Amino acid sequence: MKNRIFNSITILGASIIMYAILAVLMYTEILDEYNGQLLTLAGIYVIISLSLNLMTGFTGQLVLGQAGFMCIGAYSSAIAIMTFHVPLFFAIIIGGVITALFGFLIGFPALRLRGDYLAITTLGFGEIVRVVMVNLKSLTGGAAGLKGVPSFSNTGNFITDDIIKFTWVFGFVVISLLIITNLMRSSHGRAIISIREDEIAANSMGVDTAYYKIFSFTIAAFIAGLGGGLYAAYFGYLNPVMFGFMNSANFVVIVVLGGLGSVTGTIIAAIGFTYAQEWMRVFQDFRMVIFGLALILVMLFWQKGIMGSKEFSIVGFARDLLAGRYSIKRIISKISKLIKKWKEKKQPDDRGVK
Amino acid sequence: MREVVQQLINGLSLGFVYALIALGYTMVYGIVKLINFAHGDILMVGAFAGYYVLGRFGVSPVTMIIAFIISMAICALLGVIIERLCYKPLRNSPKIAVLITAIGVSILLENGARVLPFMGPNPKQFPTFKNSIHIIFGYTVSTVQILVIVVSVVLMLLLTYIVKYTKMGKAMRAVSYDMKAALLMGINVDRVISFTFAIGAALGAAAGVLFASSYPQIEPYMGFMPGLKAFVAAVLGGIGSIPGAMFGGVFLGVAETLTKGFISSELADAVSFGILIIILVVKPTGLFGKNTREKV
Questions:
Q1: Predicted pLDDT at B236
Q2: pLDDT at residue A351 above 50?
Q3: Which of A331-345, B51-65, B164-178 has the highest mean pLDDT?
Q4: Residue A348 in domain
Q5: ipTM for this model
Q6: Which residue of chain A comes nearest to B265, CA vs CA?
Q7: A353 lies in a domain?
Q8: DSSP 3-state assignment of A147?
Q9: B258: part of which helix (H) or strand (E)?
Q10: Interface list for B 73-102 with A (CB within 8 A)
């Protein structure tokens, strides 16, 4: 418990500093409107990728229908705002809760299905959601889409609008981070990781894998739903086409690039992915060709992703700092160890000879 | 009742196309345990190859056969190249890495076709037989439907012959049963895998020409949906099982056509994926799949 309180305080502290810096940068227009918008979108991607990482990275269940969860969250939030006039914050939460319900339901097939079969089932789920959204014309506007979802704020001043948008998304990023990091530090989290490592072993050690799988799916879907709600308010327009299979695939790519089971990796990869997508617009038609090629090359030569399953932990850093573990001597010895390791790596190994 | 039978005939011809594509999925999965997401796009390449042959030489039964042969050859080659360059280096990697590579290949093929000057993003009209209607026992059957069913049945018989009665087929079955043991028995596993990809891609190409004949419009993204559906079909029948893929494809085609005919044409996709989920939940390895128990 102490552990988790410390974790929450550190993350909150670090995010407040981070937020203050970014908000000032945006206010002084050092980060212009375009970059501010992009950063906000990156925040939404971070939330949804984090939720996928909980299912795929931590629980070890391959999910190819993330866009389906996102779609449910986006539409339920948008409908809550537009039809029932729920305030934005509660609408996003409602989106999360409804999506969590579907996550709970999708958790059941996950009990019986493994690996590829689950991947296919979730893929099917994503497609079903999309088709159903097209067909529920009275609620969702069908294939024409749902227009006029109210934005986060409409003061007319672009700078304040952007900062308010960014604040909303940033706030929810912090909420998702808190949920996931605290979960992974609890006994529930350890049980979830044990499923990834070896389900049979976990079962025989008395871990109720069925319960933890459904639990993880529900929480992950909740977070994805939050992301979906923010997505709806961010774009102001929803169309089932936005939630196709390629969208799900993008999130899988982000999570794998960041490193399965690494929260920091996911954050870096999600932000990087959002920016890369924008920068590649200069290539016009060749953009997706390059993307496909890059995907193949990355997987061929760099499977571990940015972080592997390691973390760059602010919390660990803060704890060490407080415990006075950062004497200069220690830092020097750590660096020399790293250099030694790196040198050893360069030497040819004889593993192949055995 | 009459109408049900009529729809069954229509469904059968769609189902055979799905079955042909599904065979490619199931054979590749049976051997390397990889969901080859790029398979649907092979179908697209096959359809384009057929388009150029038929566009060049006009449509007649002879050119149709030539179109089939050329597009199957091109796609077999493409399948082998993809396997050698993209999947072979990853044979011992985590599954998710190979899966993403497959998605990458799929994106590359789709968008590569979009930017290639002679293919391009705009839909093209596929030249095919004049769609005259025949009346058999009071039911209407179109020329294209007959073409689809005849070609599919011939190819499936050919495939069954290859898998069951040739040396290569024996090797394929051995590799899919146990790759390591097959290697130890002196089977050239790499060659068998390449051969499997070639056959799968060739069947996909044939399906592409047939699909384009039934829905005569081709464009770079055309392979995505039939690919996904055929994949569902393969899983329905029990992925890795060849009769399973044939049955799954026909079953899915019929189910989809019946939904289109009697319920709602827009819900057809949801119905096929719904069937998939229900069958997987009830029988996780599909209808014809072998139930392997997991051992510690």
A1: 85
A2: no
A3: B164-178
A4: no
A5: 0.81
A6: A135
A7: no
A8: strand
A9: helix B242-262
A10: 86, 89-90, 93-101
